[in-house]
Design goal:
By secondary structure, the protein is mainly α. It is 72% helix and 5% strand. Strands 2-1-5 form a 3-stranded antiparallel β-sheet. A two-stranded antiparallel sheet has the order 3-4. It starts with a helix and ends in a 10-residue tail after the last helix.
Length: 423
């Protein structure tokens, strides 16, 4: 039995425990009883333990000079590990279990995208010379921790917004605009310009080429989804928070109902896309896995937005005090911000070692700098300008949107030194 087999088994078992933990956290959030809360924490600890073992087994298999975060598959696994570990630290420190329902789904999504993807480069391969650098290893390891902290800060910010009584319309407006943008980004805006989804073609020897094939069906469905999200954003903008049940379809108010239609359109588009690639071997669904990850993220956010809208009063009742959430967010960002600074510094030193220049305005370099500036504004506005908590929480959420774009969107919009996949 090889270390590789043990690592893959551990990862698959970890996915099961993450799913179990999230379900139990949601049950805890709904009932606020100690039993599901304790079980959720136990399942999360088991998931992280298996996740850690999987990474350790893979590292043993590859050798000490080949850490488990050098390709797309490993990057997703390590990124999700950082999120889960940071969440457990926060839960232990603040005795705060409700965050598991907001934070762990992100870890599950990243890990699931890696483990369930049959074509994501799971086999361990020799590192190219540019990747054989301790600076790069430090850069990626610190980035995973920084991104994990930013995910935790996003969860704290979102929960603060909910607890502090932010109207549904602002929560729904932000979520739908984010989903519309990411749906369009998933194919570099081609579905907006041409109405079809582009896929990499595969040569007979299995190599992905630069030529693009077109699938009009999925593209049209995703374009419809983006239109629904824009319409829903408009409905949320003009929606009254005390909207009567009479202004509803099937008991769901107009704005979340249209959000649901957009989510279903995105889900059907992804299913049609999957079926089309399964029936035509010349099309590569996973020529760029980030496209699929983005669509799954959109579907998850859409479902969560509708669920949050319909259960908002109950969730507000069960969340911790708003001041506690605000302080938690500040503490997390004061940890994450120096880590992000170290990410940029170590990345620059590695770039000098590998390419001869500290900074080349690579797409991810630029996006990382924008993320760093957003969180700089957060810290300055909170500590020096004394802005109200809602405003700084909004900056934190904007920063997380930038993190998502830095990690996912950049790998779709254009190639660069950080690109893991074909375009």
């Amino acid at each position: 039995m090889s270390w590789f087999y043990l690592s893959e088994t551990a990862f698959k078992a970890a996915v099961i425990f993450y799913v179990l933990a999230i379900g139990l956290y949601l049950l805890y959030l709904a009932r606020k009883s100690a039993g599901p809360g304790r079980a959720a924490t136990a399942a999360a600890v088991a998931a992280v333990t298996l996740h850690t073992l999987g990474l350790a087994f893979r590292w043993i298999q590859a050798g000490i000079a080949h850490p488990p975060f050098t390709n797309l598959y490993e990057s997703l696994l390590f990124f999700s590990w950082g999120i889960a570990v940071f969440y457990l630290v926060i839960e232990s420190k603040y005795k705060f279990k409700a965050g598991g329902a907001f934070i762990l789904p992100v870890a599950l999504g990243a890990m699931g995208a890696a483990v369930l993807n049959p074509s994501s480069g799971k086999e361990i391969q020799d590192l190219m010379p540019a990747l054989q650098s301790h600076w790069l290893h430090a850069h990626v390891a610190i980035a995973a921790l920084a991104y994990g902290a930013f995910v935790a800060s996003f969860g704290a910010s979102l929960m603060f917004m909910v607890k502090d009584g932010v109207p549904r319309k602002w929560l729904g407006l932000a979520a739908n605009l984010f989903m519309a943008f990411m749906t369009l980004v998933s194919d570099r805006f081609n579905i907006l310009l041409h109405g079809y989804f582009t896929l990499n073609t595969v040569t007979p020897d299995g190599q992905v080429t630069a030529d693009l094939a077109t699938l009009r069906g999925p593209g049209k469905l995703l374009l419809i989804a983006a239109i629904y999200f824009v319409i829903a954003a408009g409905l949320y903008l003009f929606r009254k928070d005390d909207e009567l049940k009479s202004a509803a379809i099937l008991g769901i108010p107009y704005a979340p109902f249209v959000t649901l239609l957009g989510t279903l359109s995105a889900a059907v588009g992804l299913i049609v896309l999957s079926r089309a690639t399964l029936t035509d071997p010349a099309l590569a669904l996973f020529g760029n896995p980030f496209k699929i990850i983005i669509l799954c993220l959109v579907i998850f956010v859409g479902g969560a937005t509708v669920a949050l809208d319909l259960t908002l009063p109950r969730i507000r009742e069960f969340l911790p005090d708003a001041n506690k959430l605000d302080n938690m967010n500040y503490v997390i960002i004061t940890i994450a911000f120096p880590l992000m600074t170290m990410v940029i510094v170590t990345g620059a030193v590695w770039a000098k070692h590998a390419f001869g220049q500290y900074w080349q305005w690579d797409p991810k370099e630029t996006a990382s700098l924008i993320t760093w500036l957003i969180y700089t504004i957060y810290l300055h506005s909170r500590t020096s300008l004394n802005w109200p908590p809602r405003r700084v929480a909004a900056i934190s959420i904007l920063g997380f949107a930038s993190v998502v774009f830095t990690y996912l969107g950049v790998n779709v919009i254009g190639p660069g030194y950080h690109a893991y996949a074909s375009f």
